[in-house]
Amino acid sequence: MINFFLLVSLLISNNLLAQEFSGCGEYIFKGVLKHDEHAHLKMIYVVNEGTKSQMTFNLIERDDVQKLALMLDLPSTFKASIIKNMDGTRGALSFPSEIASRFPNPLSKNETGITKIKNFKCE
Amino acid sequence: MTAYTKNILFTSLLISITTIPLGYSADQKKQFYFLGGGGEPKGETTIFDGEIKRVGSFINNSDWDSTVSFNGGHAKTEDLMRSKMAKAKNAGPFIEKNYNAMMDEMIAKLESGELKAGDQLMVAIDTHGAKRSIGKDAEKTHRVALSYSEAKELTNLSGARTVDLDKLDKIADLAGKKGVKLAVADLSCYSGNLLNIKSDKVCLISGSGPEQYSYGAGTLKVGFLSFSQANTFSSKFFDSLKKGKNLEDLFLSARSSSTDTPDFPMINTSAGIAINDLIYKMITPYLDYNNDQVSNFGRQYGRTGDGFEERICNIDSNHHQLIDLLKQYNSLSIVADESGRNSDDFKALRSALEEYRSYQKTYEVSMRGKFEAEKEVRNIFEKQFPNDKKAWSEYDPLDFLTIDLDLQIKRYQEYADREKNNNNKYVAVMMDLTLSQLKKQKEIAAYVKANLSENSKAKLKAQEDAYGKSGVTKNLASRVSLEAKKVFNTLYKSLKKPESNPCRDFVL
User: Fold this and answer.
1) Phi first, then psi: what are they for B235, rounded to 5°?
2) What ipTM goes with this model?
């Protein structure tokens, strides 16, 4: 019977999502790239748009805007780094990679957020 | 001999429980708090209306001192509350201020001794619930939706104002210390997280597991009449709230009779926790499904082809181990049950799991085809556009077949012109560079569309079709859930201790 418990514990896998900023690091972003006249490079990335948990990320490098350009106004997902602490719900992202449009389910388009996958110290 | 064997075989599964003998007195207090109904879209009604009638029936036909903070902003729902819950004290709409006031009121009653040993306190929560966060600031339990705000999606409740249920931890602790009988029933989605409150002195019941949705009663309309169908766990649970019933029996009865919903209601008795440990995590992947509101069926496969075959191997391996495990439980169960009925339950669950796995395998064929097509696209990139890596290397290859690049180019051209007119050279240069890249991407996309093999195109179409038809997984997952409920019952009967527990001891 003990083997059963061992077996159970071996088979357990958890895929919970953290949908919030929890320190600098690499995150999976799920949101939408938007044009914004007031932004430094005129582009921002928005997650949880139009909700109480909306977060807005500035793009700092011109190269990053170029990388994400294909996804303008489309639900998208990618990996990127947050290297500085966020100011409330506003922050900046860098080094986007593995860029893709999101799974085409009507409701999952709303499934946005950020999920931390690697920790590092803020600059 | 049978009883002896049963005892030996299942002893290792049992977790010892502590029961507190409590005396009854004539002035025993019975207090009931009913909260929820939040996160619903604007309109006159909510999906919780059927439950209001059910809980109202309990309130009106019992001697429980009841307080209700429910909904807010839906005219017919509020009318229903006024008519069906007239006997209860109305603590106002389910907003954060009222929620905190009620929680603080319960804490004050426990701390002051207004509620004393042997008194009963029951809290029922019926609203939309969110998946638990992780990280240092994660809730112990989970967050639930408040009124006057709409949850735009049902996993994280984006759009809704929410509150965590962690104050219940303090209430449970106080009730345990003071000998007050406390029962909490959280019927929201992801409510299995309620059982993160570890206490063997209170009764905790959830409408589903920590990773599953919970389901409200649907409404069947016949002409001008509408009926709330009592086939979900929460509707069965609320329907069963009757004087003289204990919560353990009530939970088991509601759980075993609820149908058509891929959920996993939980109870924190020693038997309930032991079964959760034994089968919940292993059953969880079979409760995933796709329909017009949910799309978690494919989450085990990952987004790209990297590691796909390895993932399939793991799914297969886990599946075989689960089937073997159930066969072993089955053998133990046959020893304990001479009627042989238990054996049928285990067989039926195995059959449901095999059916689900069989469907997964056909879906995996289409996923494999998609990943092969993706590989061909990537090969085209590498062969035909080796010097333009920047334009394709960071992207999902299949996006080049679907994204409207003409539209994107048109937009960036407008932005570039605007920045030039505004003499913002720094951004204008960036927009020009971006335009150049988009034009290159358009060229790449056109080449891929023209040169992708018919075989790969057919594979992509097949995967699209398979996804379109994957709504069938809701029925497959529901069947797994239904059969798992029967096995849960079988195991529960075997593991149930003769001594009382806080749920059995909680008599309405």
Assistant:
1) -70, -40
2) 0.81
